[in-house]
Design goal:
This protein is mainly α. It is about 65% helix and about 0% strand. The protein contains eight helices and no strands. Helix 1 packs antiparallel against helix 4 (about 70-95) and helix 7 runs antiparallel to helix 8 (about 175-195).
Length: about 200
Amino acid sequence: MGEVKKKRINLRLSYNSPVILGFSFACLIILVIDLLTNHWATSTIFSVGGTSLSNPMTYIRFFTHVLGHANWAHFFGNITLILVIGPLLEEKYGSSDILLVILVTAFVTGVVHYFFFPGTVLLGASGVVFAFILLASLTKASEGEIPITFILVFLIYIGEEIYKGIVIDDNVSNLTHILGGITGSVMGKLMNKRRRRF
C-alpha cells in the first residue's frame, strides 16, 4: 500500500487592516496608560475642551481626543464596532482614505465641541464609529443614487441621537455622533465620486 501524504497546513496571522488595527491598538495602549496615570493622559493629551486656544496642545487635542476612552466599557463599545466595520471599509477605500476619514471626523467633532460646549470635555471614538456606520451604508452607491439602506441607517442612527439629545440626559455627546455620521456620509459621497472618475 502506498503512503498517505499528510497535507501540511501553514497558518499565519495577517495584519489585514493596518489603519484600523493601528488605531485600535493605539486606543488600547492609551487607555492602559491613562489608567496607570490616574487619568492624567486623557486629561492632558487625549481629550478636547477646557483649554485655551493659546495653548498649543489644544490644536493637537482636536485630533487626539478620539484615541482616549474613559474606561473599559467605553473602549470596548467603540472598538468592537470599529473592528467589525473598519476592515471592510479599509479594503474598499484603502488605508489612506480611511485614515483621512478618522482625521477629518476627529477634527470636525473636536472643533465643534470645543466652541459649542466649552465647559465640558470630549473623548472617545464614537464619532468615528458613526462616520464608519454611515460610510458603510454608502459603499455600493452609484452616481446620482441614494441607497434606501443609507436613508434607513441615517434615520435610525441619527434620529435616535437627536431624540436622545433632546429627551435623555445621559452624559453622552449625541452631537458628536451626529457630526460623525454626517462626516462619514459626506466623505463617502466624495470618495465614491472620486473612485468613479478613475
